[in-house]
Design a protein that fits this description.
Helix 9 crosses helix 14 and helix 10 packs antiparallel against helix 12. By secondary structure, the protein is an alpha+beta fold. The radius of gyration is 22 Å and the shape is globular. The strands form seven sheets. It has a seven-stranded mixed beta sheet with strand order 17-18-16-15-21-22-23. The protein has 16 helices and 23 strands.
Length: about 500
């Protein structure tokens, strides 16, 4: 009896495999971190083969916890860090270089050159995206230009490109022995090579970025059977759902109606609003992207505000400064003070994403006095996430003309009570945490389950969503606006730190 759905959740810092039952409850979970590689300032890389090993290990570990076998799984879904770019050999499966991670800024000079030839928004009409170091297009172009022989091999069909979802799918379904080379619309929409209207690769974009079509995966829906797994432990299980991590969280939060919004607090922070069956262009610094496409049903689009550094700032406090031993220690440290003491931390480590899109910004700490201590710094680290979220919410309301009533939240940071209360305070909106907070993996499981009829439809999934905790705003209006005004002043100080 196939009583369970599996989900691979391949994130920026770790990989998890989660098993869910029909009620959406977690049955088993295993997680392993992978190494973060920083070969030069601004460069961030992962070893794709290490990620593949970790994926196989966590699948084995999670199934072993409950003595589960392949025959117990109806299907497996994949959700993944988006934009991270892998190029590998079709014949061997070996990557030609490390994966270039979404946070990597090595193509900043290319962004400037492409922008000079037509503006930062020259491809926004087709793709919904501004020119930025963030997306896959210029990363792939960089690999083709800088790996010896790569361009010639790619044009000859000897190399394959994909974001992490595509690399895992290819390997899970046979690799060099017949693995399927596919991606879904949500991941494809993050490459800056997909046309939002046609939902296929755009020949003019490929020409502009000098990308041979032979290297690209086939674009499919987010919920269908792509192939069967062939690796040990899950042989024969259909791989039937793929969603980029933030779109997966939108699905896991059951935001199926236009106007519904979620914010995921992870390495970065990602606010998405379902805008329905038509893409909504942004005039206020947001991205227009795919939300999901279930089988043959029409695609749904989303507005997205992407923040590069949120949870990663807590990790930086832990790893680079040694101020805390583990990430969870940031909350008790921040609670040793009653407010931020006038300290503001703008974490523009790799430039600023939404709503500014300033590649030359860099991180700053503002407002330091002799009074400030490590408690104030810890509080400023947490508040930075909430301030950035408010900036994106304001842009989203302007673009969509839909006022936000409440914010559904998920991700690793939502267990931080201090942060969630401050988020409600600075937004002046209620913040709602669901019972199942692992919404990214859950969304991938939902997509896979819909494809194989494990779930009956969206109404069933919507009925599974339930509230765990709600935070109401309590901050005085004058204090709220004073704090936000000071934040905005600090942000301007980070602009143009790097000279073009």
């Amino acid at each position: 009896m196939k009583n369970y759905i599996g989900a691979i959740d391949q994130g920026t810092t770790s990989t998890r495999f989660m098993v869910f039952d029909h009620g959406g409850r977690i049955v088993a979970v295993a997680q392993k971190e992978h190494e973060q590689l920083y070969p030069q300032p601004g460069w961030v890389e992962h070893d794709p083969l290490e990620i593949l090993r970790r994926t196989e290990e966590v699948i084995s570990d999670a199934l072993g916890q409950r003595g589960l076998r392949a025959s117990d799984l109806a299907a497996i879904g994949i959700t993944n860090q988006r934009e991270t770019t892998v190029l590998w050999e079709r014949r061997t499966g070996n990557p030609v270089a490390n994966a270039i991670v979404w946070q990597d800024t090595r193509v900043a000079a290319d962004v400037a050159r492409f922008s000079a030839a037509g503006g930062q928004d020259r491809f926004r009409q087709q793709t919904g995206l501004p020119l930025s170091t963030y997306f896959s297009s210029l990363k792939l172009r960089w690999l083709l230009q800088n790996v010896p022989g790569a361009r010639e091999k790619a044009a000859a069909g000897e190399l394959l490109f994909g974001n992490i979802d595509t690399f895992l799918l290819w390997n899970l379904t046979g690799g060099a022995k017949g693995g399927v080379h596919m991606t879904d619309v949500t991941n494809a929409s993050r490459t800056q090579l997909l046309n939002l209207q046609t939902l296929d690769w755009d020949e003019k974009l490929l020409a502009a970025f000098e990308i041979p079509r032979a290297v690209l995966p086939q674009v499919r829906s987010s919920s269908e059977v792509y192939g069967e797994a062939s690796i040990q432990g899950i042989e024969g299980v259909p791989v039937a759902g793929i969603l980029g991590d933030q779109q997966a969280a939108l699905v896991g939060q059951a935001c199926f109606r236009p106007g519904e919004v979620k914010n995921t607090y992870g390495t970065g922070c990602f606010l998405l609003m379902n805008t329905g069956e038509r893409p909504v262009p942004s005039n206020f610094g947001l991205l227009t992207t795919l939300a999901c496409k279930f089988g043959g049903a029409p695609a749904h689009y989303a507005l997205e505000g992407s923040l590069a550094i949120t949870g990663a700032l807590v990790q930086w406090l832990r790893d680079n400064l040694g101020m805390i031993e583990k990430s969870a220690d940031v909350e008790p440290l921040a609670r040793t003070v009653k407010d931020n003491g006038g300290v503001y931390f703008v974490p523009a480590f790799s430039g600023l994403f939404a709503p500014y899109w300033k590649e030359t910004a860099r991180g700053i700490i503002a407002g330091l006095t002799r009074f400030a201590n490590k408690g104030h710094l810890a509080r400023a680290v947490l508040e930075a996430t909430a301030f950035q979220t408010r900036e994106v919410v304001e842009a989203m309301e302007k673009d969509s003309q839909i006022p936000l009533k409440s914010l559904r939240v998920d991700g690793g940071m939502v267990t931080n009570e201090l942060l969630m209360q401050f988020q409600a305070d600075i937004l002046n909106r209620e913040v709602v945490r669901p019972v199942i907070q692992e919404t990214t993996a859950l969304g991938a499981a939902y997509a896979a389950g819909l494809a194989v009829k494990f779930f009956s439809g969206l109404e069933e999934l919507r009925a599974k969503w339930a509230v765990d905790r709600t935070w109401q705003p309590h901050l005085d209006e004058a204090e709220r606006e004073k704090l936000y005004r000071q934040w905005k002043k600090a942000v301007t100080r980070s602009f143009d730190w790097m000279e073009p």
